[in-house]
Amino acid sequence: MLTLTSPVDTPLHRLPAGGKLAVLALFTAGLFWITSPLWLTLSLAAVLLLHGLGGAAFARHGLLLLRPLWPFVAVVGLWHLWTGDGIAGISIILRMLAAVAAANLVTMTTRLSDMIAVLETIALPLRPVLPPRRLALAIALVIRFVPVMSERLAQIAEAFRARSPRRAGWRIVAPAALAALDDAERVADALRARGGTE
To answer: What are 176-179's contacts with CB under 8 Å, separation 24+?
Structure first.
């Protein structure tokens, strides 16, 4: 639960966490300045090419992490088709895929401890208001939990479909919430066992 770092070793694993996070921030900000679908496609292709450095298994895992985006892709695509602005819809979809794929790549190639250390350093000016360690840990856990919870939600939906011919819809909200609380309690127990956040 506490790590989604890929066990497949790639050259990106050996790069410093701070550098990867800085490049990710610049890359993501740059995506919002690009409006051309061609350049956005090239940006996404570059990120996917970096996934390929780790081999087929690493790249396949990276692509699977994009699977939770399909509802957003469908909604954005259908909306822009309905409004007659397909080019803008394509640009938004490509931008979203490139940004999330890049974030997943950093997550897959960076240890949680390294990410916490970088975030803690960035948060040092907030020390009088909020302990940097707690803030860094909270941010890192959110980054790690998003794909984990997406996968857990997909498992719950699949289990529901195996037991009922009806669509899952809102019926899986309660089990998903309970699963999230259970995961949060397990992580809290693990943190307490390791001395807390201080």
So the answer is: 176/149, 176/152, 179/149, 179/152
Q: How many CB atoms lie within 10 A of CB 193?
A: 8
157 pLDDT band, cuts 50/70/90, is confident
pLDDT of 9: 80
Residue 15 φ/ψ, nearest 5 degrees = -80, 150
| Residue 91 pLDDT class (50, 70, 90 cuts) | very high
Of the candidates 91, 141, 88, 94, the residue with the CA atom closest to the CA atom of residue 113: 141
The HSE-up count of residue 12 (CA atoms within 13 Å, CB side) is: 27
In the chain, beta strands by DSSP E: none
Do residues 172 and 160 lie in contact, with contact meaning Cβ atoms separated by under 8 Å?
yes
Handedness of CA 120, 124, 130, 131 (dihedral sign): positive
Largest CA distance in the chain: 56
Angle at 44 between CA 43 and CA 46, to 5 degrees: 65
Amino acid at 15: L
| CA-closest candidate to residue 73, choices 105, 96, 43 | 96
Residue type, 35: T
- Cα separation of 185 and 99, whole Å? 30
| C-beta separation of 154 from 10 below 8 A | no
- Cβ atoms of 103 and 9 closer than 8 Å: no
pLDDT score of 15 more than 80 = yes
